[in-house]
């Protein structure tokens, strides 16, 4: 068993629970963190010794970057940002693009200057992106030609990631000022401004639905990202490099950005980038590049089990030794089904939030994953409390309450939102996760339910409050409530209970089409039921649990 990170005699070595302060301590070995506070995450990653050669490969094109290529490109782009565009510490840069080989170059260059990266989902609508721009106030945007229409009204200067022909750089309302290829040709300047960046300085501003169901900018520091990088590298014992990861996860997401776009290269590992998830492309990439690690969400794992025979006939997956699942705990049937079909491949799981820089708990072996339904043991250097939502009392082993987390990867707060920060982070640095959990006698965390009202669709978080507010703008809808409806493939889908206005004959399809035109595809309402009233408590809060019971009773 790993050492517990405390010397207190009140700590139970089996569960990690301290009876003196009702805190659970991680059973994992503590991760070493740099003591130098004047350190940005790019410098931290680039200064780590390793024996890796290839940093990134783009699966669709076969284009690759050696580590030498990568750091040359990062240096050139950061020089261009500073000298040509006046980017300084604290400036926000928007990155709107699918996964690509340029994503890590831009991120590492921006972070090296102490500027701040804000990413957004390419599937988001123009309206959703405009809302994020209005909140985060970026001074420059990186995007691809196909997504230019989504920035047409932003008036932001734009750098293109995919089109070196800039003849149309002044067309329409768009202000196309350069291309990534142009910037990568820039010679580093000896006279460029290099401001001191501290670990506490803001590095990323990623938008999350948080615990209340409305989108907020999560402020993560360089220190948060460094803690995440160290945790990832130590978790997979990657110090010697020579591992190949398939990047199926979106790089705009905290886990994709910190682990796959930046963190794994600290170990000398190779990351094979998929521009978007397609099962055939993923399987082909595993075979072609002899991948050893595959991150995925539970529905993909289920598909690998269900179609194992045809997959193994068509593809050589013999190089694969580990799959990494996140988004929801795996059942016994799925874990054992996968182990039976792919006996040489281990199954690891993870739990984390944007607010915890993607870190919280993990299973680090198949044996640990066989604690069926668990989210894993607390990540290194992480502490937890299980708190009764009613009384606020911290609870012991095997008691269910809200999971609170504290550690070096916990966010600084929500951007320009003191009220939301105060309701999520307390004065001692505890993050209220909004998840109802218990920790068993062996220190394993089990997620029982959500206090926060989020729907998990294929790993994406869908806030019901956002969809309800949208539905209420329809002239024929009097009231609405949105709940998660169980779905074998997606995990959950958004279902709307709608109260029609008097005299209205609006149909299910009309409701779904109304929402679909205004939100990203993963947020679309997939089922609709009409009711006379939406059940609410005396204070007007929607009784979602009653609607969930009603929906499930009709399956």
From TrEMBL:
Q: Which residues cross the membrane?
A: 252-277, 289-308
Which Enzyme Commission number(s) are listed?
A: 6.2.1.12
Going by the entry's taxonomy, the superkingdom of the source organism is recorded as Eukaryota
Instruction: Write out the pathway annotation from the protein's UniProt entry.
Output: Phytoalexin biosynthesis; 3,4',5-trihydroxystilbene biosynthesis; 3,4',5-trihydroxystilbene from trans-4-coumarate: step 1/2
Supply one GO BP term.
Answer: phenylpropanoid metabolic process
For this protein, what is any one GO molecular function term?
A: trans-feruloyl-CoA synthase activity
Keywords, comma-separated and alphabetical = ATP-binding, Ligase, Membrane, Nucleotide-binding, Phenylpropanoid metabolism, Transmembrane, Transmembrane helix
Domain (AMP-binding enzyme C-terminal) spans 466-541
Positions the record marks as coiled coil are none
The enzyme's first-digit EC class, named in words, is: ligase
Q: Where is the AMP-dependent synthetase/ligase domain?
A: 48-415
Q: Does the keyword NAD apply?
A: no
Q: Which Pfam families match?
A: AMP-binding, AMP-binding_C
GO CC annotations, alphabetized: peroxisome
- Similarity comment: Belongs to the ATP-dependent AMP-binding enzyme family.
**What protein name applies here?**
4-coumarate-CoA ligase
| Gene name as annotated | 4CL1
């Amino acid at each position: 068993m790993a050492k517990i990170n405390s010397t207190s005699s009140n700590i139970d070595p089996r569960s990690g629970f301290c009876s003196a302060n009702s805190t659970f301590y991680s059973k994992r070995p503590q991760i070493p963190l740099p003591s130098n506070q004047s350190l940005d995450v790019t410098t931290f990653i680039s200064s780590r010794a390793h024996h890796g050669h290839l940093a990134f490969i783009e699966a669709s094109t076969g284009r690759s970057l050696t580590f030498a290529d990568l750091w040359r490109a990062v240096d050139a782009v950061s020089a261009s940002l500073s000298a040509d565009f006046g980017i300084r510490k604290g400036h926000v840069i928007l990155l709107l693009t699918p996964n690509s080989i340029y994503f890590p170059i831009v991120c590492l260059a921006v972070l090296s200057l102490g500027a701040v990266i804000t990413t957004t989902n390419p599937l988001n609508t123009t309206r959703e992106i405009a809302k994020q721009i209005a909140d985060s106030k970026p001074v420059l945007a990186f995007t691809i030609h196909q997504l230019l229409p989504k920035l047409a009204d932003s008036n932001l200067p734009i750098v293109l990631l995919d089109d070196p022909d800039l003849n149309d750089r002044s067309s329409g309302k768009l202000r196309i000022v350069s291309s990534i290829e142009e910037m990568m040709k820039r010679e580093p300047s000896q006279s460029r401004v290099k401001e001191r960046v501290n670990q506490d300085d803001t590095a990323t501003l990623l938008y999350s639905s948080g615990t209340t169901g409305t989108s907020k900018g999560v402020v993560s520091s360089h220190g948060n990202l460094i803690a995440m990088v160290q945790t990832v590298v130590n978790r997979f014992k990657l110090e010697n490099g020579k591992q190949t990861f398939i990047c199926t996860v979106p790089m705009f997401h905290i886990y994709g950005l910190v682990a796959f776009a930046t963190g794994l290269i600290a170990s000398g590992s190779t990351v094979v980038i998929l521009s978007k998830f397609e099962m055939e492309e993923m399987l082909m990439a595993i075979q072609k590049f002899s991948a050893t690690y595959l991150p995925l969400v539970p529905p993909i794992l289920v598909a690998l089990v269900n179609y194992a025979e045809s997959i193994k006939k068509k593809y050589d997956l013999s190089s694969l030794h580990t799959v990494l699942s996140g988004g929801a705990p795996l059942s016994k049937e799925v874990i054992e089904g996968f182990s039976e079909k792919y006996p040489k491949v281990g199954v690891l799981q993870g739990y984390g939030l944007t607010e915890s820089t993607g870190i919280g708990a993990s299973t680090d072996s198949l044996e640990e994953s066989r604690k069926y339904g668990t989210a894993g043991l607390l990540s290194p250097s992480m502490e937890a409390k299980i708190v009764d939502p009613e009384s606020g009392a911290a609870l012991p082993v095997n008691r269910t309450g809200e999971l609170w987390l504290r550690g070096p990867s916990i966010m600084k707060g929500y951007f320009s939102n003191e009220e939301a920060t105060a309701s999520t982070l307390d004065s001692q640095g505890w993050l209220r996760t909004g998840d109802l959990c218990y920790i068993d006698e062996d220190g394993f965390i089990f997620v029982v339910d959500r206090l926060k009202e989020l729907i998990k669709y294929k790993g994406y978080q869908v806030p019901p409050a956002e969809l309800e507010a949208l539905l209420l703008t329809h002239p024929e809808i009097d009231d609405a409530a949105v709940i998660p409806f169980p779905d074998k493939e997606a995990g959950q889908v958004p279902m709307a209970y709608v109260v029609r206005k008097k005299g209205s004959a609006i149909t299910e399809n009309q409701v779904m089409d109304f929402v679909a035109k205004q939100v990203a595809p993963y947020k679309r309402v997939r089922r609709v039921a009409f009711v006379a009233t939406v059940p609410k408590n005396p204070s007007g809060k929607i009784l979602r649990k009653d609607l969930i019971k009603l929906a499930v009773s009709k399956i």
